């Protein structure tokens, strides 16, 4: 990792994100929201946003505050701003969820909570965009993986704008006809911009860099990588800008979504080719657990494309859209997120503790902070849970779905215990754990700003 500082609050983002994941899994295992409630029911909206905003978006923001500077070898514009940003996002999420409960009649408070939550979330994401935008701007010309991140950041802007419009219309703050049209027909755009643009496209950009870094493989910038970028970016631009225009001018949204979908599939295929190449060209022969589990998540991503095509052929996509969204969120995005967290937490903790004393005293290697043979069973259990839960949704078996999610919950708790042990240096040999000049890391934030170091 070249010449960059540690992002002070990234661990707080990760902790908040993991708490949201556990909360969502508890709710699903308890039978809250879909499939017990309708897809559009307020209970499902609560669940969806705990996952999309609380878990996946906070995880992504925390990772970006650390890895955008790594990608471009320039420091983060502000290392202070992420804390108020997190406060805004958490307050916004809480208000949004209360707003959904208001729609369900569970909360009877009179204030327009949905709109307040949307504005706070809008503010939080604006701060994310400002901080990362200034960081990227200072580093022009930018490497290719960061172009994916820029498109991802534009997509969260679009997702938030659509979300804010929905919230304002639903809470009765506005009845302006174009905005009502957007609220009535814009849901697919909100979902694609969020899951496809913000979470998937950004994850793709970060994964190009992280997989190459952690497997010691060459950086990719050839025609397939550029192709994946242009196909994906034009799919998103078409769906978001073209889709919004079609809604306002009463054009056909279906045509736009279909062309965008084809471009998106092409981008996925090109990305798949690149990733296979990265795994084959790696110099690190023994693949670490994080990269093996990331490969499973990437397999799930490819399986999503296959599932969508099969459901389309049988005319069953609309009926099974919840199963597809579930598989994208938990098989692909959460699978990749958990596997990369396993390495990132170890790597950042190692850098924080031992970076400053490297070369001055004996220090452990990054891999000495983790015990892979213990962690693997939780990852295997997690993926078994996800596959079973997706199958249960496809086969309309709500009780089996709850059991499968309970398995995911146990597995996630197991993975979190491993992360906490890593952060606590609990698995490092006592003789190497805390040499002179090294202090015990805190769970929720990082101490040091570091000189340039290479991992061992
Ligand atoms: C500023 C942030 C956001 C706000 C204010 C917001 C707001 C909303 C609102 C009000 C709805 C209900 C729309 C309706 O039923 O007419 C909705 C639906 C939805 N949102 Fe968001 N959202 C935000 C971010 C996100 C993100 C980042 C994602 C995904 C990555 C996401 C995924 C979804 C999904 C999948 C639905 C449909 C859920 C269902 O029908 O059960 N949202 N959003």
Shape verdict: globular
Overall structural class, as computed from helix and strand content, comes to mainly alpha
| Amount of helix | over 70%
Number of helices: 14
Give a short account of the largest sheet: none
Chain-wise SSE layout:
Elements: H1 10-29, H2 42-72, H3 82-104, H4 113-137, H5 144-170, H6 177-185, H7 187-215, H8 223-248, H9 253-281, H10 289-313, H11 321-354, H12 372-394, H13 398-423, H14 430-433
Helix pairs in contact: 1-2, 1-13, 2-3, 2-4, 2-7, 2-11, 3-4, 4-5, 5-6, 5-7, 5-8, 7-8, 7-9, 7-11, 8-9, 9-10, 10-11, 11-12, 11-13, 12-13
Bound molecules: protoporphyrin IX containing FE.
The site of protoporphyrin IX containing FE (HEM) has 28 residues, from α2, α4, α5 and α7.
3D structure, described in words:
The chain has a domain at 323-436. 73% of the residues lie in helices and 0% in strands. It has 456 residues and is mainly α. It is built from 14 helices and no strands. Residues 452-456 have low confidence and may be disordered. The protein has helices at residues 10-29, 42-72, 82-104, 113-137, 144-170, 177-185, 187-215, 223-248, 253-281, 289-313, 321-354, 372-394, 398-423, 430-433. Helix 5 runs parallel beside helix 8 (223-248) and helix 12 runs antiparallel to helix 13. The chain binds protoporphyrin IX containing FE. Protoporphyrin IX containing FE (HEM) binds at residues 39-40, 44-45, 48-49, 52-53, 57, 96, 118, 121-122, 159-160, 163-164, 166-167, 170, 183, 187, 190-191, 194-195, 198-199.
């Amino acid at each position: 990792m070249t010449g960059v500082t540690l992002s002070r609050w990234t661990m707080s983002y990760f902790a908040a994100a993991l708490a949201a994941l556990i909360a969502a899994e508890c709710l699903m295992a308890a039978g809250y929201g879909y499939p017990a409630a309708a897809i559009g029911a307020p209970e499902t909206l609560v669940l969806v946003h705990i996952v999309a905003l609380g878990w996946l978006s906070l995880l992504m923001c925390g990772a970006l505050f650390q890895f955008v500077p790594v990608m471009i070898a320039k420091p983060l514009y502000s290392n202070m701003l992420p804390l108020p940003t997190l406060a805004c996002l958490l307050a916004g999420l809480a208000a949004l969820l209360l707003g959904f409960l208001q729609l369900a009649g569970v909360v009877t408070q009179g204030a327009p909570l949905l709109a307040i939550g949307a504005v706070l979330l809008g503010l939080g994401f604006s701060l994310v965009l400002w901080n990362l935008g200034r960081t990227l701007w200072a580093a022009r010309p930018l490497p290719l993986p960061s172009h994916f991140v820029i498109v991802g950041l534009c997509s969260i802007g679009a997702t938030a704008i659509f979300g804010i419009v929905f919230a304002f219309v639903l809470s009765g703050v506005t009845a302006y006809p174009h905005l009502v049209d957007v609220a009535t027909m814009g849901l697919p755009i909100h979902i694609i911009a969020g899951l496809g643009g913000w979470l998937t496209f950004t994850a793709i950009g970060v994964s190009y860099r992280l997989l190459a870094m952690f497997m010691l493989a060459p950086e990719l910038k050839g025609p397939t990588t550029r192709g994946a970028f242009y196909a994906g970016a034009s799919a998103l631009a078409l769906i978001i800008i073209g889709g919004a225009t079609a809604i306002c001018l009463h054009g056909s949204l279906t045509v736009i979504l279909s062309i965008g979908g084809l471009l998106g599939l092409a981008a996925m295929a090109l990305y798949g080719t690149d990733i296979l190449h990265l795994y084959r060209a790696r110099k690190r022969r023994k693949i670490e657990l994080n990269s093996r589990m990331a490969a499973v998540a990437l397999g799930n991503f490819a399986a999503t494309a296959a599932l969508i095509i099969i459901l389309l052929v049988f005319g069953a996509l609309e009926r099974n859209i919840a199963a597809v969204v579930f598989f994208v969120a938990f098989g692909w995005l959460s699978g990749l997120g958990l596997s990369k967290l396993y390495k990132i937490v170890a790597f950042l903790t190692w850098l924080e503790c031992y970076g400053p004393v490297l070369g001055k005293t004996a220090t452990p290697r990054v891999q000495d902070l983790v015990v892979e043979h213990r962690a693997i069973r939780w990852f295997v259990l997690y993926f078994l849970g996800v596959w079973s839960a997706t199958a249960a949704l496809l086969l309309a078996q709500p009780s089996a779905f709850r059991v499968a999610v309970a398995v995911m919950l146990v597995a996630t708790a197991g993975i979190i215990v491993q992360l906490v042990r890593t952060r606590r240096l609990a698995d490092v040999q006592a003789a190497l754990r805390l040499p002179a000049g090294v202090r015990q890391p805190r769970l929720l934030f990082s101490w040091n700003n570091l000189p340039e170091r290479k991992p061992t």
